[in-house]
Amino acid sequence: MNKNTLLVGALCAAIFSSCNQKENIKTIIIKNNLDFKRTFETVELSKEFLNVEDLTTLAIKDAETGTLQITQTVDNDGDGTFDDLLFQPQIERNTTKTYHLITITEAEKLKADNLCYSRFVPERTDDYTWENNKVAFRVYGPVAQKMVENSIPGGTLSSGVDAWLKKVEYPIINNWYKKNSKRPGAYHEPSPEGLDNFHVGSSRGVGGIAIKEDTMYHISKNFTKWKTITTGPIRTSFYLEYETWQAGNKNIKESKLISLDLGNNLSKFTTFIEGTNTISAGLTLHEKDGEVTGNTERGWVSYWEPHGDSEIGLAIVAPEHTFIDFETYNTEATDLSNAYAHLKVHNNKVVYYAGFGWKESGQFTTSQAWKNYLNKFSQQINTPLEVSLKN
């Protein structure tokens, strides 16, 4: 064997070794135990689970088709290092599917629009607003609260959650605030993108919390601190903090992590709370001309109501070990009639999901279609995808 042959053989071996190293580092196996296809569910792969030091050079591809998946890295604690790698597999019913974890250069990464977006909005007092390709929401900050307390027009005193009714897949937050800055109230008017005509006031809106003491519900004021954690093609998430507040004789300490994933109509609320063993997440009843329904076994409560020239469904969904029951609370006091989901607090934390489906967006044309979505969503959170790793 001559030197040229040896050189070529060594080169081929090096290339093969490099390709092997680049391609199949680890195999991710995902199992769907439910009797329907799973699509817009986010799988979180931590550094510890993957046993890697750096997530930024990793990508995921379908083992069968070789198709790269859209991924997003998240720095949960703000220390400058990414903690989780996110992606949304598509898995048929009662099926196991395999993906490969590979190394990849920045140029080779699959590009995707950042449809999951949130930000603090100082130009509109101090809202915090978030959206994905289906829905949008906002909550109100301390400046808006002080304006009300000081009788300054334009403020909002509420810890309720506002719904922004969008009917396009692309982001609308910045466009709507830009329109509003040029002409106050512009986003309240109908447009091809939708509009903000959802009244919150002091109600719970879509998922704000209350604590029931005897027959009375107690609520906090506006958030006092905020921090954006991530935006991207798969998830946006952020942190809110509230001043300690009173619920009867209880001192309540509250903060929360809110996230919204691609393709979901419900935001995830992870509420950290001290001073109570239960909370009640609420849905405003507006004119009380809709229908409250619920399913204690599935862990959801819904309110389907007429809304302008259309209809809208609101809902709270919680894991089965968290959901206690639900209640329709009617009162003559303005904005304080709500449908409530009563939820257990576990180790000073409670997780639930809240959101809406607007008929005019074309997603849910009947209340039954909305209920079907909630039943599926409940099954998904109570029977999560099983994820395993094979080296």
UniProtKB/TrEMBL annotation:
Query: What PROSITE patterns does the entry give?
Result: PROKAR_LIPOPROTEIN
Q: What is this protein called?
A: DUF4861 domain-containing protein
